[in-house]
């Protein structure tokens, strides 16, 4: 599995964490300073913990019990009120604040050698001159290549240095000059982390921007990207929120403001202890006129639903994809002195038409967590009719968009254009190949000479296509996996494998924008969104 020298969440792991990130909507405010729950000596919870600590037969980590007890209490309220242990609270907050502390590299092990696959722009490794494809020979004088090093051993060394903020001396072979070893001294430091995965122009005037989370820097990242795309001729926009589990409420409202005219209601929140708060657009939007489509799926949650719901209610964008997750609860984080925190639901949010999109959690947390699997089992991910017939959707909804079009409440944002899940892009063959990083390994091993022939990403994306001979070579290279599958399954997966070979090669040399530029060529949802605004 690909490793990252820092706490970073990517790709499929992002989807798993999406709902967790969506928990953290509230940001700052008078209620966010450190505080203590009322655990006085006369409180039952405090007394029981004290009894366990001083009287129980075995040694017990009381802190862990306290966390479990508090979390059990919170989960009886709703699925998104949570207790976060210090490490988890730190990881979530760090990720949403637009960066992390570390070296700023991702790496994989290739035949007993640690190879750097990605270098984060602006991070310590990038500043030191490290580039993708660098093969690490030694770390702090200790040989790393050809010694049987494992993923866990490599992670232990690098992550320990990051945690201690100690400089790391890497001896390596650069991809463009493998004849001479070079040494780099890298001190862990701040690594900027954009919340935009991709931004490019497709076919002259349609821009594509993919946002992975709503973080502190999202609006600034978007403004920079949209300005660059406009210079390149962009007049229309496809905004991709698939897999985006949410983030800060303010980041979502700032983003909506980019597309809406002054004084339009974006969202409002209210709760028993929280008076109604309305969020309105200003007149500072950077893309108020051009046609746009928004891509969502069942992993688009929370802040993603605030943005897509506002744009749908106000007839500003066509929503394309599948019904979103259905999280309409607002959390505020209350930190403790030990670094742990409670994410407590303090309000519900409502779209401009007045609808709540929170799905029911009346059957308990386990049922709530399993709801996406139920959608799959019932066929909702593959049928627009099944999606509309789902009992979670209020089919007699009184809510209307600004133009009078009916919209639904009670279980997520229902798209205007339904696009079924594409199983051809996630076959068992492709999942198995991805799990052991064979696409990345093949690019590092076999495709770097090919990439030298393409100085620009656009030329590679638009003119290169893997041949059948290259596909066969990859199948042999990956035989440890491919030999386990019948020929019929391999043949059915071949088109998607070719696309991913090209996409991983593009990512290696030009980054995530090039990766998505490649995969979107064959993405049915993207093509539907593209057609909707043409």
TrEMBL record:
- Record keywords, A-Z: Hydrolase, Protease, Serine protease
- SUPFAM superfamilies referenced in this protein's UniProt entry, alphabetically: ClpP/crotonase, PDZ domain-like
Q: Which residue ranges does the record assign to the PDZ domain?
A: 89-158
**What CDD domains does the database record attribute to this sequence?**
Peptidase_S41_CPP
**NCBIfam families in the record:** prc
Q: Which family does it belong to?
A: Belongs to the peptidase S41A family.
Q: What is this protein called?
A: S41 family peptidase
Q: Which organism is it from?
A: Mucilaginibacter defluvii
